Amino acid sequence: MAVAAAGAWWVTRAPAPATSQTAQTPASAPAANGLLVVDPAKAAALGIATAPARAADQAPLADLPAMIAPPANARVAVAATLPGTVLRTLVVEGDAVTRGQALAVVASRDVMTLSADLARAHARAGVAQSSAARLAQLNREGIIAGARADEARAVAAEAGADVSEKARILALVGARGSSGTYTLTAPIAGRVTKADIQAGMPVDGTTAPFVIDAAGRYEATAQLPERLIGQVRVGQTVRLPVAGGSGSVTGTVTAVGNAIDPATRSATLKAQLPADPGIVAGRVGSITVWGAASGGAVGVPEGAVTTIGVDEVVFVATPRGYQRRTVHRLGAADGQVILRDGVRAGEAVVVHGTSALKALAEAN
């Protein structure tokens, strides 16, 4: 996309090349076809600078208010696995966390019970294994039947499985049997968007004190006006201005509703956006939807367009002076105006000193 991508405009402060005729004219003079002949010295004094118009294959269709949030499958609730009392919180709302990072420490009587059960299971397993080994030896010596040895091995295996299960549960909740506590940890990397927890409060398996939004992508939801339904399609580009150095982020339309809300006369639009430090989940922003531009469309900096009477105009540098051109815009976004006509790609348009040329044009 030649113009839709943000980028610096190459600005040239040199005025239009002067000819011998220009040198003999006054500081400024009108000419046919909207041409202003400006003395090079005066052009420099006015700070006139130009930049090339650039071909545009996309144009902004609409600016839409949108709610920014993580996709539904990128949000995870962290539940308290065992009932207990919060001893300490380790993160607050808004913190970035990594997978496995500790979120809070909870004291739980169930941890003590599970630890005791594990100790008893270890003891039973030890006795069962010793008994199985002894009976296996007696079976080999022909003193007892093989069925008794097999039964003892089954009991030992069952006791071992009981130990493994209780140990797995304690490890899963991050329990410390000696202190009777367990640790809530982050199941994914992301940002804590809910931390409804504080030291001293009770928790149980029915509550989810933490919610973590996965880092990496966001979803914008907006209402698309009825007049644009059919023009906006899945795969088209959207832009969201953000605070900070990046200026804006570029995303993609992922869904356009095919049912019109009778109250708002609009359909739901969803777009996916990449992660950016300037994006905050839950905030309302304004997304710009871009569509295909008509053939011959160009983009120029906003400073190049001014109004004379009822017309929007730009001034194009030519070897003889600055020619006023009437233009028609397709839209504007990110400091650029997309023009349908009046200027060709590559022509040098005035981007600084436009107001001075406008005053000269109106005076003449």
TrEMBL record:
Keyword field contains Flavoprotein: no
SUPFAM superfamilies, sorted: HlyD-like secretion proteins (SSF111369)
InterPro entries: Beta-barrel_RND_2 (IPR058792), CzcB_C (IPR058649), MFP_Cation_Efflux (IPR051909), RND_pump_MFP (IPR006143)
Domain of life: Bacteria
Keyword list, A-Z: Transport
Residues annotated as domain CzcB-like C-terminal circularly permuted SH3-like: 298-358
Pfam family, one: Beta-barrel_RND_2
Claim: Lipoprotein is one of the keywords in the record: no
Ranges in coiled-coil conformation: none
Domain CusB-like beta-barrel stretches: 221-275
PANTHER family documented for this protein: CATION EFFLUX SYSTEM PROTEIN CUSB, SLR6042 PROTEIN
Family: Belongs to the membrane fusion protein (MFP) (TC 8.A.1) family.
Name of this chain's protein: Cobalt-zinc-cadmium efflux system membrane fusion protein
